[in-house]
């Protein structure tokens, strides 16, 4: 059994890693630049670069093998190195230079964007990531001096570095422009590995209000659990009772009526149940139709979830129970005069628990994550509502953290299910 658990844990780790890779590609690569969504469409490239740097979106995607243009201040003074556009040019804004991450260089070194395979012959357009690169740049050093560099006609990185280093005002080498490349130890300083580490340790923070994901989960998870746990428990108990009796009276009017109502319920969209339920509550008790101002408000969405899920559950459980209801041991129990409830709930139900357990595990992630549509529609501030608002607001750290949480819960539920198989069925061996 120990070997089985270890093997399943390793498989779960690979599954979680695969999910995180897929979500990373969706949230970071396919979705495009996220900076404009948070800084505004009219924000300057410098402002967008500062936002990316502050939140770690300026790092390379997978591995850090990227070079950067660097300008270092060799003067001594109390000021800070600045590179600005002069006379309406676009060069400094395109360079998007940011202070160095090293504390001892923060005031005296500015670095550009990460560029794959950056060298002296790299076209300047590829190095800055924009098509506009013209005018003059003004470099202000720590000792208060200013250096104006004309960059019109610059075609390559070599041209830019030569213009800055060879400028007449830079004769004493007060600034040095060069290319810096990452060291071997910085190879994993990339978006993917930071994304993975923060998601695994639940250290992600919202891009909207900088709130930690763990604090958000603690605040919202009880509301989701208050909705999903009663709905799942009530739905399961009611569906099992109905399924057992419908299956027991197979081919009678009870069975036919139960199947007809179940199929009819499956044909009605879940959204229709929500719309009708909320409309009905607005008609009879408007205070309890939306939000959580009153504790009793939670009963409305719970009831809707139970009723909406009964059709599919009854159909599934009826099929499972029918496989057991005609077994020899059931006929023997009937012949011995065993009561109907004892036959159904003591013998039949126990022997068909394996597929029922599998079906229940499918709902485990929703216990934590809540129901996205129900929470949003009824104004319940749970984790499902948080997921939708994060998607709409492109709050990527919260989205990735919630995806990791749901994947972790789901894989843990699968392991518990496998272990429970051996408990409910002695014929199952875990090897």
What key phrases describe this protein's structure?
431 residues, 2 domains, 5-stranded antiparallel β-sheet, 8 strands, 57% helix, MetI-like fold, single chain, 3-stranded antiparallel β-sheet, alpha+beta, elongated
CATH homologous superfamily of the largest domain, by name? MetI-like
Number of strands: 8
Low-confidence stretches: none
CATH architecture of the largest domain: Orthogonal Bundle
- What percentage of amino acids are in beta strands? 5-15%
Helix content: 55-70%
Indicate the CATH class of the largest domain.
Answer: Mainly Alpha
Order of helices and strands: HHHEEHEEEHEEHEHHHHHHHHHHHH
> What's the tally of helices?
18
Shape: elongated
- Tell me the domain tally: 2
- CATH topology heading of the largest domain: MetI-like fold
- CA radius of gyration is 31 Å
- Based on helices, strands and strand pairing, what is the structural class? alpha+beta
Largest sheet: 5 strands, antiparallel
Summed over residues and divided by their number, the pLDDT gives a mean of 85
**Gap between N and C termini, in Å?**
6 Å
SSE blueprint and pairings:
Elements lengths: L1 H29 L4 H5 L5 H11 L10 E8 L8 E5 L4 H5 L2 E2 L9 E3 L3 E2 L7 H5 L7 E5 L5 E5 L6 H9 L9 E6 L10 H10 L12 H36 L4 H15 L2 H15 L14 H27 L2 H8 L4 H12 L1 H9 L2 H6 L2 H6 L5 H10 L3 H29 L7
Written overview of the protein:
The protein is of the alpha+beta class and 431 residues long. A hairpin with a 5-residue loop joins strand 6 and strand 7. The protein has two domains: 66-181, no CATH class; 213-424, MetI-like (MetI-like fold), CATH 1.10.3720. Helix 8 (213-248) packs across helix 11 (299-325), helix 9 (253-267) packs across helix 11 and helix 10 crosses helix 11 (299-325). The longest helix is centred in the middle third of the chain and has 36 residues, at 213-248. The chain has 18 helices and eight strands. The protein starts with a helix and ends in a 7-residue tail after the last helix.
């Amino acid at each position: 059994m120990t070997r089985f658990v270890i093997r399943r844990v390793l498989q779960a780790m690979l599954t979680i890693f695969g999910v995180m890779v897929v979500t990373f590609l969706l949230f970071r690569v396919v979705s495009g630049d996220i900076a404009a969504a948070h800084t505004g469409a009219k924000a300057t490239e410098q402002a967008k670069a500062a936002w990316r740097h502050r939140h770690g979106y300026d790092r390379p995607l997978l591995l850090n093998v990227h070079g950067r243009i660097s300008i270092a201040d060799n003067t001594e003074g109390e000021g800070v190195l600045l590179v600005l556009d002069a006379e309406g040019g676009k060069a400094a804004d395109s360079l998007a230079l940011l202070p160095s991450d090293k504390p001892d260089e923060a005031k005296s070194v500015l670095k550009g964007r990460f560029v794959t395979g950056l060298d002296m012959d790299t076209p300047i357009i590829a190095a800055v990531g924009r098509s506009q690169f013209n005018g003059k740049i003004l470099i202000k050093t720590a000792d208060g001096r200013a250096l104006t560099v004309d960059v019109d006609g610059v075609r390559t990185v070599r041209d830019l570095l030569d213009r800055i280093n060879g400028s007449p005002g830079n004769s004493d080498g007060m600034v040095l422009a060069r290319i810096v490349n990452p060291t071997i130890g910085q190879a994993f300083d990339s978006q993917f590995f930071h994304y993975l580490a923060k998601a695994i340790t639940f250290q992600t923070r919202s891009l909207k209000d900088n709130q930690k994901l763990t604090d958000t989960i603690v605040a919202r998870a009880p509301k989701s659990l208050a909705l999903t746990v009663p709905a799942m428990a009530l739905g399961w108990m009611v569906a099992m009772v109905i399924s057992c009796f419908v299956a027991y009276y197979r081919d009678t009017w009870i069975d036919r009526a139960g199947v007809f109502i179940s199929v009819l319920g499956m044909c009605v969209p879940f959204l229709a149940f929500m719309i009708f339920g909320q409309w009905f509550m607005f008609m009879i008790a408007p205070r309890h139709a939306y939000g959580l101002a009153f504790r009793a408000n939670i009963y409305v969405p719970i009831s809707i979830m139970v009723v909406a899920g009964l059709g599919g559950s009854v159909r599934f459980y009826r099929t499972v129970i029918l496989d057991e209801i005609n077994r020899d041991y059931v006929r023997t129990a009937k012949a011995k005069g065993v009561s109907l409830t004892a036959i159904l709930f003591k013998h039949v139900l126990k022997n068909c628990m394996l597929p029922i357990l599998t079906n229940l595990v499918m709902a485990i992630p929703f216990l934590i994550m809540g129901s996205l549509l129900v929470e949003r529609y009824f104004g319940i501030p749970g984790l499902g509502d948080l997921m939708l608002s994060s998607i709409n607001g492109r709050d990527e750290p919260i989205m990735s953290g919630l995806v990791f949480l749901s994947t972790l819960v789901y894989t843990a539920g699968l392991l518990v299910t496998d272990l429970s198989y051996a408990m409910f069925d002695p014929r199952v061996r875990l090897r």
